[in-house]
Amino acid sequence: MDFKPFNKHLWIKPQEEKENKEDPLFIMPDEYRPPKSPYVFGSIMDMSDDCTIDLLPGDIIVVERSTIQEIKADFGTIYLVKENYVYGRLENEIN
After folding, report:
1. How many CB atoms lie within 10 A of CB 11?
2. On the chain, which terminus has fewer CB atoms closer than 10 Å, C or N?
3. What is the pLDDT of residues 17-37, one digit of tens each?
4. CA–CA separation, 53 vs 61, rounded Å?
5. Are residues 1 and 75 in contact, defined by beta-carbon separation less than 8 angstroms?
6. φ/ψ (deg, to 5) at 83
7. Order of strands, sheet of 60-64, starting from the edge strand that comes earlier in the sequence
């Protein structure tokens, strides 16, 4: 998919939360899902040319879950977030 964000938006790919597969201490209904974290890690796919934040495609960022805009289309789903909603970037400690 080829998509270019505009107006200070970042196109991200959110990372899925890992579910805890341990046996619960209590029996819960089958439809029960534990609450999700209010924060999401996401990999930057692309960003608008007018962004002033010091990020590059491939960087991993932290944003609040409620600030992510989800756009569904026939070709897939696009996740956008405004640059001023980015809390920070995760640094790779290997390099």
Report:
1. 21
2. C
3. 666 666 667 777 878 777 788
4. 12
5. yes
6. -60, -30
7. 69-73, 76-82, 9-14, 39-47, 60-64, 86-90
